[in-house]
Amino acid sequence: GVRIEADGTRTEATFVEGIAQGEGRQTTADGSIYEGGFRDGLRHGRATVRLPGGTTYASQWRAGVEIGGRRPDVMADALVGGLLRAQAGGGDAGKVELSVSVDQRITRQADMQYAGAVYDEHIEIYPGNAGMVESWLGEATISPNSYDSLYGAIDWEDAPSYMLVDLKTADGSRVRLDALELQVEDSQVYRKPFLSILEHRGCIGFRPGFSFANNGWGPAAGGRLAIEFFNEDDPDRASRTFEVAVADFDEGLDVSLRSTLDEAGVDTRALERARFTCASEAELPQCHERVVGSLQLGEIRDLIAGDVTLSLGVRGSFTYSWADDRGNSYEATEPMEASLQLGAIETEVMVAEYGDGFGDPPAALRYQEIRLPSDDSNYVVDLTLRGNRTLADHTARLKVYAAENSIHRFRAVARFADGSTRQTKPVMYYHVRPRDPLHVPEEPDGCYLDDAIFVPPRE
Description:
Layout: E1 2-4, E2 10-16, E3 19-27, E4 33-39, E5 42-50, E6 56-62, E7 65-69, E8 80-82, E9 96-102, H1 104-107, E10 114-118, E11 123-127, H2 130-137, H3 148-151, E12 161-169, E13 175-189, E14 195-199, E15 209-214, E16 221-231, E17 234-238, E18 242-246, E19 252-256, H4 258-263, H5 268-273, E20 276-277, H6 284-294, E21 309-323, E22 329-346, E23 368-372, E24 376-382, E25 390-391, E26 393-402, E27 406-416, E28 420-423, E29 427-431
Parallel strand pairs: 11-29, 20-22, 23-26
Antiparallel strand pairs: 1-2, 2-3, 3-4, 4-5, 5-6, 6-7, 8-28, 9-12, 10-11, 12-26, 13-24, 13-25, 13-27, 14-15, 15-19, 16-17, 16-18, 16-21, 21-22, 27-28, 27-29
């Protein structure tokens, strides 16, 4: 199991009644990594410890206290620097621990949540929602729910990450702090498209297509679909695979599969001209069967599902390329699934009622607001220091925004009055801010269907 404490400590171990026991791994917000035993939730036994600067040593622990091992002198830690780097003890920098972590307290209340992980060479801060991570990586299925289920309930004008930069002395002594800052090595927009599907419903009966909507910040080029049609009531029943070229697009694109249906032997001209009626809702199953039997549907005859509509499932993969702002190109292949409306049976149905939306995100007080640029490198963000700078501990609370999906690499750096400095491991920060939905599918001329027929009756 995994347990994350409010201070950012992450423990991966076997938990017995909620208490870590046996072998495991524990990371702390300052970037230290412990790999060894636990007893009653405390470090116990032989272990390997990796310091934030990368130095690794063997250690011995008893009930949470380090009792043996060759813990290196502070000067072995590469994260101590500055004018006193070569002097014994490393100056004030050698007395402090410095960390960057997700503020667990307020993050747990926020609509947009981030998580953190410590690795040997760096720290990552990334979306806490597994579906968002899959979307970021291109591993999620492109579907009608792709956007709304993950991003639709969040107010993206106010969806920052909440971070803590913590500084404290190991022995409780006081040090004189001159400055605390984020040194940002690189910031760039993540241009990969974030794709979802808008199904074409209503207006007229025959709607043999769908739309790609792109909520990412870069276009999709050279697209191609490899798809099969399937029965939505019995998904194991499917057609052969068809290849479809897709034009380049940015905000979105209407995709017609009419020619693919022609290739499958469907009389699309007849479907386009036909209108279907049914005397009552109770007779819909018989009407549906009669309509399907009257049409030339070729290879997809046994794949038609639905009740009010003649629905046909389509699934497969979409392959496309995208490019970043540094001139690098990438190819992505993502699964996709949608439903086509090939016809509609007109009858009376009841209109359902829907509930209210979501509430406002929690307020965050006493946080320094930081807005990271879209495309910049080697810049510094000064963190606010108030009051007495001679201190034993200090916490900077950050509310971090960016205008787009973006990747930022930075370190927190503390500079002291004696000229020494302390810095954290590099932090890779993956900020989520999708583009607002902009694509509107083109509606056919001559609408005749009442949208009410597509709403299920109220029970």
